[in-house]
Every structure is written in C-alpha cells, then in structure tokens.
Model the fold of this input.
Amino acid sequence: MAPERESTRERTPTGATAAPRPRARLDQPRPPRRRIVPEFDPEAFGRLSEKIARFIGTGRFLVWMTVVIIVWVVWNVAVPGRLRFDEFPFIFLTLALSLQASYAAPLILLAQNRQDDRDRVNLEQDRKQNERSIADTEYLTREIASLRMGLGEVATRDWIRSELQDLVKEVEEKRRHDGHAPFPAERPEHPERTERSGRSERPQRPDRPPGRDADDR
Done:
C-alpha cells in the first residue's frame, strides 16, 4: 500500500533550479506593483494645466506680471545697495521669466491637446448625427414618394366630382336627344292610401293594415 500512495502523490522536482512557482489565482485581483516613478491622475493634471493656460491667456495675468517686473526693477535700482537682491543686469529676473516661459509653453500645449481631443470627439459625434439625419431624410423622402404613388391610384373628392359632373352631362344630352326624361317619376299605385302630414306626404306601406300609420305614431 505504501508504494501506491507514493505514486499518487504529486511529484515535485528537487534542486535549486526546480523551485515550484506560485500559481496566480484568477478569482482575485493582482496586487499593485511598486513603481519608482510617482503616480498621478492625468485628468486632474490636465484640468490644472487648462486652468493655468486660461489664466495666462487673460489680461489680468499680463497686468500682474507687468506690475511685478516694474516693482522688481524699481526696487533693485532705487533702494540702497544692501537691500538689493538683483543688481542691474537683472539676472535673477531674466532667470525667473525664462523659467515661467519654459513651464507656460508645455502647459499651453497640453491644454491645446486636450481641447483638440474634445473637438475631435465633438466632430465625430456631429458627423454621426449628420449621417443619421441624412439617412432619416432619405427614408422620409422614399416614404413620401411611395405615398404619392399610392395616392395617385385613390379616388379623390375632386375626381369623383368631375366624374359625376360628366355623368350628369351625359344624362342631360341623352334626355335632349330622346325628348323625354331618362328616369320618369314613378306614380303611386294606390293614391287613396297616402296621408298628408304637416311636412310631407308619406305613402303607407302595403304590408301594414290600412288603419295604422306607417310610422306607428
């Protein structure tokens, strides 16, 4: 029995090069990897860059920058030498302006790229909407054309009126040629059975008794 148990057991290779690797579980998410570069939210950074680019492109920023430069220059020219922090060539001021320009240009480019992406998405949506509108217009055009073709075979009121007028004209012409009415009025067979009312004369029905009114009043 002992050899059979040993054969059923899972054999693992031994040695330094044959170490068993841990199996990754598919029902659990992987643990986050450690990164040397700090992570940041690109959307939050993009929104911040857009705010800075909008502020740089306003007149308020130009006014404040002009005021700061004037104060900087007047301070370093008018005050005594021990209180000056930037002498006449104004190297520190040049460095600050260069640093500001070097950061402002990428931020403006990033804001422009985000705006281009939004414009591209809006253009794609507008293109799809235009395609749907064109398709709907073509469908409605085909439906209207089919309705017009179907209405061409339907008897309209004007057509029926014109046909009746033509029929009346034919009857009148036939009457003139023949010299008598085409549809002579029928005379009542039993005039004694008709009774007069306040509005019109109504003949009694032959299937009713002569003593009763035709309308059973």
